Amino acid sequence: MTARSVRTGGPAGPAEDADDLDVEEALALVREDNGSAHRGHRPPGPPPQGSGPAAPPEAHHRATPWPEARATAARAARAVTRSARRAPVSVRLDDALGLTLAAPLDALTDLPSFDTSAMDGWVVAGPGPWAVRDEGVLAGHAESAPLTDGEAARIATGARVPPDTTAVLRSEHGRTDEKGRLHATRDVVPGQDIRPRGQECRSGDQLLPPGTLVTPAVLGLAAAAGYDTLTAVPRPRVEVLVLGDELLTEGTPRDGLIRDALGPMLPPWLRALGAEVTAVRRLGDAAEALRKAITASQADVIVTTGGTAAGPVDHVHPVLDRIGAELLVDGVKVRPGHPMLLARTKENQHLVGLPGNPLAAVSGLLTLAEPLLRTLAARPAPEPYTLPLRDEAHGHPYDTRLVPVVLRGDSAVPLHYNGPAMLRGIAAADALAVVPPGGARPGQEAELLDLPWASAGIGVCFT
């Protein structure tokens, strides 16, 4: 992976300060008025009557700024974790990868739990030369009889060192003479190549604090320390509702119908973000089916695809209004994906409304779903970093833009095929560059959002 520089104030505004924003500020932002009229985007509204000269475009662009939207999603999740007090779960090691420890990982035993040979060779007692026992010492066997001065025994790595051992003599540092006596070919230092009991930890020592992400190495440490299960924060449960009568689930596009790209893409992506995907349901464009699905869901987070604008079959807003949901984010100043939304549907349940265009939906995932799910799962936030862009990245006049990039050495290379409906660019990408309004010139530092499978992190696990 290429070298990274920590961001202290990136092009989209310092994310560290975004958490200080009040939720009421986000709630006060009105629904975005301008946008294209195709499915998944809100059409522009008429100008106010008798208002004099037309207002500048910025006056109509009132969606939530991108950093604030991400901060609002994280705060919404924190409110749930405080109020719901989600109970930790006991999880077998095989199922704990990617979870967050909810309790300290304390050593259940000394490590190592007995004096252990660090090398293949001989255990020796006293000065040499040594008479070698006929019976060697193997790993996994009971403790051998003590050695006496002038005695040695063959030993394997990891085997329990017999009492009264002076040192372990490595195989390559010893030779036997014609009488079978062992001689050292270099000086023997007492205690050499012996791992003493408790060298790594003593029983009761805290090995890892709560809040630690369970990585493969954590699983190995837990097993070595005697654990069969871990106490962890449960994965947030997510239900995916795929909307749209125009979607096919197999075959090539035909007769005005298109393949559903989000149904196959979202579940593994959500799992990579730490979620448990409980269901993927295809509802078409039926408002009543959407209402029933939302009100009946027991998931922590509902993710919908498409239908977030104001077209004749865009039912997400009317249904949320009908069930009394609270809109926390209604449109974001980001391209692609500006008609995304975040709503509180129940006291401890949220809905993330993604645009229907595939790359716009990816933008919604990383803008709203990622901070929401990460906070619910108590995962640590990724460290912000920047890299210079090798080529120019075209921006939007007023909005942040997320552009797929590949990492080459110490720079990020913007990719083509980055339109809202395209996945060709993101499929080849390592990250998304956060491009400020107006664009970025070659060599300009840009904040990067790693993709789960490209960041060499725990997110590579999709199950």
TrEMBL record:
It comes from the Bacteria. Residues 64-73 have a biased composition (Low complexity). Its EC number is 2.10.1.1. Pathway: Cofactor biosynthesis; molybdopterin biosynthesis. The keyword Phosphoprotein does not apply. Its cofactor is Mg(2+). Coiled coil: none annotated. Residues 1-73 are annotated as: Disordered. Residues 16-25 have a biased composition (Acidic residues). Residues 239-375 form the MoaB/Mog domain. The keyword Metal-binding applies. Residues 43-56 have a biased composition (Pro residues). Keywords: Magnesium, Metal-binding, Molybdenum, Molybdenum cofactor biosynthesis, Transferase. InterPro entries: MoaB/Mog-like_dom_sf (IPR036425), MoaB/Mog_dom (IPR001453), MoeA-like (IPR038987), MoeA_C_domain_IV (IPR005111), MoeA_C_domain_IV_sf (IPR036688), MoeA_linker/N (IPR005110), MoeA_linker/N_sf (IPR036135). SUPFAM superfamilies: MoeA C-terminal domain-like, MoeA N-terminal region -like, Molybdenum cofactor biosynthesis proteins. It catalyses: adenylyl-molybdopterin + molybdate = Mo-molybdopterin + AMP + H(+). Catalyzes the insertion of molybdate into adenylated molybdopterin with the concomitant release of AMP. Belongs to the MoeA family. This is Molybdopterin molybdenumtransferase.
